[in-house]
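Fold sample X.
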Amino acid sequence: MNRIIVAGARGFFGSTVVRLLRAVGCAPLTSSRRPGGDLVLDVENRTSIRNTIRPCDVLVDATAPFQKRTAMLVDEAIAVGADVIDLSDSLAYSRIVWTRDSAARARGVRILNSCSSVSVLSAFAIERSRIRDPIACHGFLAPATRHTANRGAAESLLASVGQSITVWRSGQFVSLPGWTEVHQFAALKRSGHLMEMADAFTLPRVYPSLRNVDFWVDPNTRGAGVLLSILARVPAFSPLARHGLPLARILGSNEGILAYEIEGEKGEQSNVAFTGRDSFLMAAIPAALAASRLSSGEPCPAGVVPVHQHIDGVALAAALTRYGIRIL
């Protein structure tokens, strides 16, 4: 098997990927910018990358927030001949990565962008809906905040609150103010605030019939929704929100939910949801499965791999069930 290197292995989701890989018999190498793991790897330092990675390595990039990342790791991996799997939820980062498709194909390198709940489970939900020509996909997330309240997640959230964000509306990208719109999810009896997510870019590339793709979030923590609504109107106060992480770990929910409303061109509607006490595992399971697959030499097309081809759907459903994630 080829080496698996997990970048950002000291972080919450990076360490979760490591744990999942070890549970299936893999021996991932842990890396971060600071000594203490198996390798020292700074994903934004060209010299560090070149000194660390080798041809045929499988790199799992869990170094958030991706909203602030460049494509340096991807570029160097392509040059060396190593595969990259990232847990990015960033639309802007997906756009950057997709410009490397031709270079990756030429080198026989596989790039699995947004190999996480966003956008692999999003595509899985569309496939499970059995709607042949979906025209709309509305995603909803209420995270298990007691587990996931960390700096990377907070930075990702605050990148949309009160900022100009991009969504896919009426078959084109549209800029809107983040968090100020609310969408009611009738099947869940819950509502979410509008956020920017990679789905708006990744899903229409796979399902060209999609005319509307957006994503909505409920912070799932008492009082957080009101606070974020204030910050959406007074963005200057956003840095103060980071001080709320300790409270989110106390007041937040233990159980999260990821859900999708999917609509077809003939009026069909379908609701697919994923939930469980350890729902945070949903973000790491796709990357762990994909890393195991690539390191073992299973076939996978070169280039930037479409999100519905990252993992076999049967294997993904089995892994979610194994870790207590219910598919509704």
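Fold sample Y, listed below.
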Amino acid sequence: MREPSIDVVAPLIEGARRRWPSRRLAAGLSPTPRPGLVLILVGLALGPHGLNVLSEPALASLDPAVSVALAALGVLVGLGVGTWRPRELRRIGAAGLESATTIALVCGGLLLARGPLFVRGHVSWLVALIAGVCAASSSAAAEVADADRGRLFPILVAEVDDVLPILLGVVAVLWTRPAAPLVVAWFLLRAALIAIAIAFASWLLIAQTSAESEQRVFAIGALLLLGGAAAHLSLSALFAGFLAGIFWNAAGGAGRDGIARDLRYLQHPLVVLLLVVAGSRLELSFDLAAIIVAYVVLRIAAKRLGGWLAGRAAPDEGGDPGFGLSSPGVVGIAIALNALQAGAGLAATKTLFAIVVVGSLGSELVSLLMLRAEGT
């Protein structure tokens, strides 16, 4: 029987591309996690544990496309952090402080809670650490005027607080293939060089081409190479794309402009694909209910504290963002999905994935209530 995966996913992708609300998920991206995370429920309904429309073989056939989507998400974050003026550095520093606070509190809280709350499963210190990394990604509402600095500050922080999670997210993939430190270092260096080489070659091709159609072909080809190389090396596709985005932003010129334009055109369908596949791969378990509740509570509290610290670190940007950073970003789900791909069959990666995905849905519901209570 013919696999129906593409026929099912394609209408969702096309519909999302034509109409999507204007909220940020990372580095100026929209769609918003609020309706976007609903696609996780769509994927769950279509997946092997639902209607089985997206069966295990169908999901396996979509793995290369998911790697490309992860690479594209990394590129878009990398393109958003390339200006190194003092004000931008303060903003990046404040966002890094907020991310580090979230990682530390969520990781520490899960380690303390795993004894009384978790009976069966694998919540090791590494699972708790990576869950904290995934929790650090934020989204913020974008429907504000530039003059409204108090409400603009969460957007400015959310645009770059994905940087630290992406860098630390490499651990989530390397965790699935233990090796000596020198071997890991050489592995990372080789992968970084490959990503930069792909970015340099595609930048040269796009810069020397004036036709937009040809530039789009080269940009898509660069994404395919980045995602394919990362999948082949079992590396984080997010990390590879992030390095390429940093290079393209630093190189500038027509090559950078063409890549940014084409990737922003492709971002919606790729993120839709990522969320649908994430929902399809989700395995629910009542054994995880207590630890997921702990994850949501810890994440909301950590984001509140981290946002306050970010406001103190950059007071001229607008001050305390309140609960404006409590909405989860797609990067956290992407890191967990990348780890699930690299560690196929490992119980620990399945546990991590369930905690992060269901916890993101719960965090979004709680953040809506908190933001409504604040009157934003």
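Sample Y note: The chain has one domain: 53-374.
Also: Residues 36 and 272 are 7 Å apart (CA to CA).
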